[in-house]
Write a structure and sequence with these properties.
Radius of gyration: 17 Å
EC number: 6.3.3.2
Catalytic activity: (6S)-5-formyl-5,6,7,8-tetrahydrofolate + ATP = (6R)-5,10-methenyltetrahydrofolate + ADP + phosphate
GO molecular function, one term: 5-formyltetrahydrofolate cyclo-ligase activity
Family: Belongs to the 5-formyltetrahydrofolate cyclo-ligase family.
Strand order of the largest sheet: 3-2-1-6-9-11-12
Number of helices: 5
Binding site for substrate: 69, 74
Structural class: alpha/beta
Strand content: 15-25%
Shape: globular
Bound molecules: ligand FFO, adenosine-5'-triphosphate
CATH class: Alpha Beta
């Protein structure tokens, strides 16, 4: 079998980059690429993401969205969360409570935040418990990259993989990434990795991954 076929796409026969890199090697490359993005590009992308959330907001009024507050080079901004809240969406943010699943508390605005682990801004209000994810119809998940089969690469704490198994089967689980972080290569996957149903990018908006889960066993 040729090298090209060996690294061929798992559900088309298109050639893709080989996936011999480890998760940590991928993280190093992706974080370096994020650091190289200019402040102007970052701001434009955050604005585009906030606009997408603003458009989705009316349709989500009265519903619960589990979101996150971007830190450092992560795509997005607090503006998108404000748009959701203004439209009557209940926005929950994660709280790191030990090494288990994430806890959640309501985002009540910029003044209701305090600094938590990893320099994250967390809601200061009462934690709702790890099971709060079950209320969400949309989950916005921080990620460094997602492949076409829905495999997500995060920061390496395993927090979301421990937290997402409780979501409703009908929920949209969308990783928020920059457009080029929706990669054609197959990311390294482990049995605990929870697949994304969708991606949210500044250029493409919210898109469902019709090919989520479509990995042949030899690629798993
Ligand atoms: N904005 C945001 N919130 C989040 C996550 C996230 O990735 N982003 N998480 C996702 O699970 C959970 C918390 N886990 C996190 C783990 C590592 C890092 C982080 O930025 N680590 C640094 C190194 C640590 C440091 O020096 O501060 C890094 O990887 O560069 C952030 C969050 C829940 N909340
Ligand atoms: N469901 C789980 N149960 C127990 N441990 C888990 C689970 N999911 C992940 N882990 C642990 O977390 C570690 C990191 O996982 P992984 O590299 O997939 O993190 P990640 O998805 O990139 O991180 P994050 O979700 O925090 O952004 C794994 O090596 C594993 O030890």
């Amino acid at each position: 079998m040729s090298a090209n076929r060996e690294s061929g796409h798992p559900f088309t026969d298109q050639a893709v980059a080989p996936t011999t890199r480890t998760k940590d090697e991928w993280r190093d490359t992706l974080v370096a690429a994020r650091r190289a993005v200019s402040a102007a590009t970052r701001a434009a992308e955050a604005e585009a993401l906030a606009a997408v959330l603003g458009e989705l907001a009316d349709g989500l009024a009265g519903e619960t969205v589990c979101a996150y507050l971007p830190v450092r080079t992560e795509p997005g901004s607090i503006d998108g969360l404000d748009s959701l809240r203004r439209a009557g969406v209940r926005v929950l943010l994660p709280i790191v409570a030990g090494a288990g699943a994430l806890d959640w508390a309501e985002f009540t605005g910029r003044n209701g935040l305090r600094t938590g682990p990893f320099g994250l801004q967390e809601p200061a209000g009462s934690p709702l418990g790890t099971a709060a994810v079950v209320w969400a119809s949309l989950l916005l998940v921080p990620a460094l990259a997602v492949d076409q089969t829905g495999v997500r690469l995060g920061r390496g704490g395993g927090y979301y993989d421990r937290s997402l198994p409780g979501v409703r089967a009908t929920a949209t689980v969308a990783a928020v990434i920059r457009d080029e972080e929706h990669v054609d290569a197959l990311l390294p996957a482990e049995p605990h990795d929870v697949l994304m149903t969708s991606v949210l990018t500044p250029g493409g908006g919210l898109r469902r991954l019709s090919t989520a889960g479509r990995r042949r066993p030899r690629f798993a």
